[in-house]
Amino acid sequence: MNAAAVTLRGVAKTFPSAPPSSGTPSSGTTALAPTDLTIASGSFVAIVGPSGCGKSTLLRMIAGLTPPSTGHVERAEGAVGFVFQSPTLMPWATAQENCALPLALSGIDGSLAAPEALARVGLAGFEGAYPHELSGGMQMRVSIARAMVTSPRLLLMDEPFAALDELTRFRLNDDLIALWKQNGWTVVFVTHSIREAVFLAERVVVMSPRPGRIVADIAVDLPDRSPAARLSHAFTDQCARVSAVLEGAA
Fold this sequence. Notes:
The protein has helices spanning 55-63, 95-99, 101-105, 113-120, 136-148, 166-183, 194-200, 233-249; strands at 4-15, 29-40, 44-48, 70-75, 80-83, 154-158, 186-190, 203-207, 214-219. By secondary structure, it is α/β, with parallel strands linked by helices. It folds into two domains: 1-14 and 28-78 and 153-250, P-loop containing nucleotide triphosphate hydrolases (Rossmann fold), CATH 3.40.50.300; 89-152. Strands 5-6-7-3-8-9 form a six-stranded mixed sheet, sandwiched between helices. It has a three-stranded antiparallel sheet with strand order 2-1-4, with helices on one face.
């Protein structure tokens, strides 16, 4: 069994509904109920649930971007890459400059690593392109390359393909599977799409409406994850299983 890359112990999050300086008593809004979760190193885990159930909050706490109100987050050593819902590229910077940003912020020359990362996501030859010259799917590839450039051990992805057309989304799903296998990342992927979760992940964690809690942790057993797998009975059956759990939690 692989060592744990991420361990959550009783992690919960309550957001204040009024600023502390306002003097207004407030019990706050509980976004996430106490949650325990262990994610093995090198695994691919998808998190699904209704809007507002705390999926993104959970991901941000794993990243260290949002502190938990209670509980503890334990993370194995190593760099962390985060891919947000939108590409969040600097419009005045080229694809290579955007990709190299995490290295530049650390005072590291990214002139070699950034082109290599862009090539690995299929953007060789577009190093000098600006965001407005790239399609939505290509912009997201730059965002993934930017997350890759620090050689992360853990890759966190918050609905990165939600705004893309289905064909582009399928292609990026296929590419992500290949990159995960090549790099040995641990991936935690938040999505609203049951089909996307089942296709990508080895485990699908299902969350309840707010305050979010884990209601199921489903192992996904697919013979393969090629594009043809989306048409298989095994894939359809797994999607139906996750859908039934999600509907029952509503």
